[in-house]
Design brief:
Glutaredoxin; oxidoreductase activity; about 170 residues; antioxidant activity; globular; Thioredoxin_ResA/DsbE_sf; alpha/beta; five-stranded mixed β-sheet; Thioredoxin domain-containing protein
Length: about 170
């Protein structure tokens, strides 16, 4: 009986490590995906080659996500929205186009919000936890990742984007 419990514990530990192994990390390549939005048009990872890409994953009910997106609107988007070498993909986990449209009528964000109603894109990056940010350089390699929102961490992200665009 003790061996069964030990075996079960070992399997559970392996599952924990397997889940963590699925998390996208620095050095990983931009996954292949397609985003479809009736509001902002369609985007595919194939069309992002040669660009610096920031993928921001959020949910409308997530408090830290709201803080991060407010900072994106205030400081980040004005600085980079006209840069032809940069793409911002803000993706609403488990949200439809219609839900994001209603949400944005309240928030008045000027950057695009892409739906991911079935977590199909989110699952390519992570299993859980939002907000998340992933910055990819022009070669499509992750050069910065973060989970959660803190002002200091956001400043590091700003620096990483400036560095990637050099």
């Amino acid at each position: 009986m003790k061996m069964k419990k030990l075996g079960l514990l070992f399997m559970m530990l392996c599952m924990v490590f397997a889940v963590n192994a699925q998390e996208l990390k620095k050095g990983d390549k931009l996954p292949e995906f397609q985003l479809k939005s009736a509001v902002y048009g369609d985007v595919s990872s194939a069309g992002l080659k040669g660009k610096v890409v920031l993928v921001s994953l959020f949910a409308t009910w997530c408090g830290p996500c709201q803080l991060e997106l407010a900072e994106v609107e205030k400081t980040f988007w004005p600085k980079y929205k006209d840069n032809k070498d940069f793409v911002l993909l803000v993706i609403g986990r488990e949200h439809t186009d219609e839900q994001l449209k209603t949400y944005n009528e309240r928030k008045k964000f000027t950057f695009p919000l892409y739906p991911d109603p079935k977590r199909e894109v989110f699952s390519l990056f992570a299993e859980k936890s939002i907000p998340r940010a992933y910055l990819f350089n022009k070669e499509g390699e992750a050069v910065y990742t973060s989970i959660g929102y803190e002002k200091e961490e956001f400043e590091k992200l700003m620096d990483a984007v400036a560095e990637a665009l050099k």
